[in-house]
Amino acid sequence: MRATPMDYDITTEGDERRLVFRGRLTFADHEAFHALVVALTEGRPKRCAVDLSNLDFIDSAGLGMLIMAHDAALEQNIALTLHGAQGSVRKILDITKFDEIVAIEE
Amino acid sequence: MKSSPSRSSPGGGCRLRGFGVPPETVARFAEAHGLAVADETDPGDRVVALLGAVDDALLGQVLSPPVVACFEVAGEPEGFAERLLPAVADGELFVSLTTATAYQTYVACHFCRALTGRAGLSGACAGDMEVAVHEAVINGIIHGNLEISAYFPRSHREIDAYGRTVSSRLADPRFGGRRIEVSARLREGAAEVSVRDSGAGYADPFGDPGQPLHRGLRLIRALAQSVDVSGGGRRITMGFAR
Prior knowledge:
The complex is a heterodimer of chains A (106) and B (242). Chain A is α/β, with parallel strands linked by helices and 106 residues long. Chain A contains three helices and five strands. Chain A binds chain B through residues 1-3, 24, 26-28, 30-31, 33-34, 37, 57, 59-61, 63-64, 67-69, 71-72, 87-88, 91-92, 95-96, and chain B through 56, 60, 103-104, 106, 109-110, 113, 127-128, 130-131, 134-135, 138, 142, 152-157, 159-160, 162-163, 166, 214-216, 218-219, 222-223.
């Protein structure tokens, strides 16, 4: 089984921007994250939905990057929510009580 | 009839095999450490892999039986005789990579998958172990070998500057050439995984309950059944129930 690096898509439907992560979101992905945050909040959509259902693995830096995206969205009055975390990613969000920092919707 | 190296010899009778390294390099290691070279038809049951250019595909391919240890051939062979061979002789799984390679590959993922295959770990245990080992590896790379004391930035506006610091340290052989070692031993009912860096060391962050831990260390403490810091802060050993 291959270890799949992080990849993402950003799309817009009406007032909502949708960010879909795939693979593994880890420390090394910080190199791409500033551009990701700029693209995510560009044009000030009303909402940002971050789809984690295809994310296989996340580390503490990955959590830090989700907080960065949340804070950047909040600065522009954009409501950012996380969706669809499963398996190991779900467990990491749960044990870090991540829903106290970023809204998680089922 | 082929002679079989004794288990009392260095590395417990393991043999050497090169992956992307010249045969003369394998022969040089074999001579220097009194080891036999594995041949294609009879590799033996315990092989130490000497790795040249390392990527995820190679790590994923190599870390399966009969390979019991991987050593990236780059710079000085630090730790090969002092730690790798004794660990292998003791039945441990062992990987030694340069910091630059450990940063560019999912070493914790490959290591834990290899260990899971050998130890019959449950999926939940393997998942917890992979996150904890990955956090220990990143901690050893950034705060240990690269000697970057700053924590991961809070704002995306700071992340590019932080990334430039990481990149410049990785490119500097004084930091990027240091080694990260991951090793594991199986005990009755438990697996122990250690991550060792070659940095300046630091005070045991788990030793003072009043001291706040950063998020990565909190994850390690939450996911491992036991955590022990030794070697002046350069080695963290995590226990997991099997």
